[in-house]
Amino acid sequence: MPLIPGEVKLYTCGPTVYDYAHIGNFRAYVFEDLLKRFLLFLGLRVKHVMNITDIDDKTIRGANAQGSISKHTLKNTSMPFSGTSIP
Fold this sequence. Notes:
Layout: E1 7-12, H1 23-41, E2 45-50, H2 57-66, H3 69-78
Parallel strand pairs: 1-2
Helix pairs in contact: 2-3
């Protein structure tokens, strides 16, 4: 039962920025997408927020090797969602 009638708030894990996404990440994205679509199908309003994985030592090492954090993380945050759209 939603706290606010007719509305569901969904907070999910997003892409891993320290390296390319892998099959475990994609499984989570598919589940989140199916859940959201099912809730919309039921006629609920869905507010969906997706985080980006925290920066850790792997991210810092990769950023130092490439010269900046944005160069290192851009390919890893945009690639999993390229060619997709939000309904």
